[in-house]
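R.M. (postdoc): so does anyone remember the format we settled on? I'll just put the structure tokens first.
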């Protein structure tokens, strides 16, 4: 086959693959989640396999430990979160009164200086707030009442562990089968590209996931000990959002400090919340990210943010799961294409390169 024919075949296969993912996006979520879990746990399972000399035994032990950790989180963290949420809801009228007490002098001064503009602003804000609240309620109602949403959640809880277990058990077999299916002529190049993709994905996904777990635990404990309402929920939320560069820490800082200002009358306690975030940033920037993720994963933070947003817009939560691997694959292929272009006559021309 000529080079153009090969390109057409691979291009058609890629288009069919993307079309299949798009058509089946509503049912692929538990399977993609299972692949992600198996990929994440494969290094631990492989190390344990060397000691036990049994892949099945290693898979069973890793799966049992993961299930135990999940149950511990459910039985320990969920009641605490529920308690904090109930306390926060009970204190909402108090918080609203404190916010109004702090803002009332500024509002009165604005009304005195700009009476007409203040009334127009109040009406505009009231209209937008009412419309946004109705839209939020409608969206929540649509999500909760949708049968597909319930099916997705049920399949995620029931199918994902099964898929992850079997993939983890047969991971080496799948990798060997993929290697055997590679075209013989380009097998060496494809293996090299796959190795680069795996290094980037493993370095970022596994490293960043570990960073998220550490940050979530640190902020949850720190904010809870500071006495902040919803400290545990905010800390866990920061850990989850930290997968998107800069979003988790920035959002958590704004929400935590804003809630601390409303909740505490003592600025020293607000300073404690700020200090928690300063320590968290020092921990993340000087230890966690350099040690666990590294600076040579080849994924720029802007590219990661774009990939996550684009994946979410195209495929929903499924897109979020596959965004970083796809971004890593595209990055490796683009660099490979640029390298080939700079070695080709199209770039070099008839003369020598500069």
């Amino acid at each position: 086959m000529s080079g153009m024919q090969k390109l057409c075949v691979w291009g058609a296969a890629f288009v069919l693959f993307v079309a299949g993912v798009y058509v089946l996006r509503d049912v692929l979520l538990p399977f993609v989640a299972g692949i992600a879990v198996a990929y994440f746990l494969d290094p631990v399972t492989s190390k344990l396999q060397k000691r036990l000399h049994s892949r099945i035994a290693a898979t069973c032990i890793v799966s049992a430990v993961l299930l135990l950790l999940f149950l511990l989180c459910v039985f320990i963290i969920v009641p605490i979160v529920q308690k904090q949420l109930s306390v926060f809801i009970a204190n909402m009228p108090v918080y609203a009164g404190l916010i109004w007490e702090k803002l009332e002098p500024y509002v009165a001064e604005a009304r005195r200086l700009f009476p007409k503009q203040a009334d127009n602003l109040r009406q505009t804000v009231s209209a937008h707030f009412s419309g946004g609240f109705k839209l939020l309620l409608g969206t929540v109602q649509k999500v909760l009442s949708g049968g597909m949403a319930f099916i997705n959640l049920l399949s995620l809880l029931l199918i994902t562990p099964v898929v992850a277990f079997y993939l983890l058990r047969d991971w080496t077999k799948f990798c060997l089968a993929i290697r055997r299916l590679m075209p013989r002529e380009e097998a060496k190049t494809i293996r090299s590209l796959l190795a680069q993709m795996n290094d980037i994905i493993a370095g970022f996904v596994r490293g960043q996931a570990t960073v998220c777990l550490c940050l979530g635990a640190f902020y949850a404990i720190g904010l809870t000990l500071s006495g902040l309402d919803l400290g545990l929920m905010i800390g866990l939320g920061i850990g989850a959002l930290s997968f998107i560069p800069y979003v988790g820490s920035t959002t958590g800082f704004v929400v935590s400090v804003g809630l601390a200002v409303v909740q505490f009358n003592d600025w020293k306690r607000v300073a404690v919340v700020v200090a928690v975030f300063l320590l968290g940033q020092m921990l993340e920037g000087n230890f966690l990210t350099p040690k666990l993720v590294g600076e040579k994963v080849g994924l720029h933070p802007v590219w990661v943010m774009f990939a996550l947003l684009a994946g979410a817009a195209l495929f929903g939560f499924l897109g979020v799961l596959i965004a970083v691997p796809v971004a890593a694959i595209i990055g490796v292929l683009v660099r490979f294409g640029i390298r080939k272009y700079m070695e080709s006559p199209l770039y070099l021309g008839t003369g020598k390169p500069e």
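R.M.: ...and that's the designed sequence above, right after the tokens. Also worth knowing: The chain has two domains: 24-78+119-181, 188-343. Residues 55-113 form the longest helix (59 residues).
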